Amino acid sequence: MIQSMTGYGKSVLQLPTKKVTIEIKSLNSKNLDLNVRIPSYYKEKELEVRKKIAKGLVRGKVDFSIYVEMTADETSTTINKGVVKEYMQQLKNVLFVGSQDDVELLKMAVRMPDALKTEREELNEDEWNQIEANISTALKEIIQYRTDEAASLEIDFKERIANIKTALEEVKKLDEERIEHVKARLEKALSEIEVEVDKNRFEQELIYYLEKLDINEEKVRLANHLEYFLQELGSDTSNGKKLGFIVQEIGREINTTGSKANYAPIQKLVIQMKDELEKIKEQILNVL
């Protein structure tokens, strides 16, 4: 079953002192392009998180974020009282006596370096285990999103392939008519120049000419490629790159058929097939 590379997953964890929101977004990309944004006190777990995401999502442009909102009254940032007092004393010494105002001095002092100190929060393993479980939940959600998105792509692919098959059947019906048309056109051209032609030599040249215009191999290969595409589409794994290669081969056979056909009704069908294939190419880039 195919998967899309477009997806979104979210999980929210409420802890005693904080709310942790985990978000994963992905778009299509040739390889895995992973961007991770997490608070500094979880940084030691970043490599572990990257491996987990890479294993689950495989490919795509992925943005992973952990947002933390403190819900408790406590704060990890405190005023460095000694430093602030020292700053205020120094400011008093440089200001005129008549302009001293402790409130204004305090405003100035807290803006100075080291006036505020933030105690670095240590990683709590029990807390991280809960966050890790929620990361798994968000991953499951985005994978399900990708699967649901791919279901509509699969329906569209099958419809486009069916349209190409229908056009190919029409090409097969018109091919015999095309050969007769080419023979008649050559005979008419010879009759117009009013020269005697050796019938045996004419037949030999005609056979040689028709061999150059023969599209039987292209029809067989095109039919095989279409079946192979459907076969891979229904496989247990999602392989967008492989489907992309098959689409390239389908395009090559359609183009060769158009260039060799030399017959307007068939070339119209070739244009229809190209149109359907272009729509597949646009969407196949989004398949995992």
TrEMBL record:
Residues 172-287 form the Endoribonuclease YicC-like C-terminal domain. InterPro entries: YicC-like_C, YicC-like_N, YicC/YloC-like. Pfam families: YicC-like_C (PF08340), YicC-like_N (PF03755). The keyword Hydrolase applies. The keyword Cell membrane does not apply. Its cofactor is a divalent metal cation. Residues 2-154 form the Endoribonuclease YicC-like N-terminal domain. Keywords: Endonuclease, Hydrolase, Nuclease. PANTHER family: UPF0701 PROTEIN YICC (PTHR30636:SF3). Belongs to the YicC/YloC family. NCBIfam families: YicC/YloC family endoribonuclease. This is YicC family protein. It comes from Tenacibaculum polynesiense.
